[in-house]
Amino acid sequence: METFGDKLRAFALAMALHLLCILALLVGLWWTHETRPVSMPGPVIEATLVGPTAAPKARSGAQKPQPSRPPVKPEPPKPEPPKPEPKPVEQPEPPKPEKQTPNELQKPSQVDQERVAALAQEKAEQEKREQEEKVRQRQVELEDEKQRKLREEQQKQLAEIRKEREAVEKKLKLERDRLAQIEDRNQKQAQAQAQPEAEHEAEQAQTGAGGQDNDLTARYAAAIQAAVTNNWNRPDNAQAGLRCVLNIAQIPGGDVISVSVGSPCNADPVTRTSIEQAVMKAAPLPYQGYENVFQRNIKFNFRYDG
Question: Looking at the domain covering 187-304, what would its CATH class be?
Answer without folding.
Answer: alpha beta
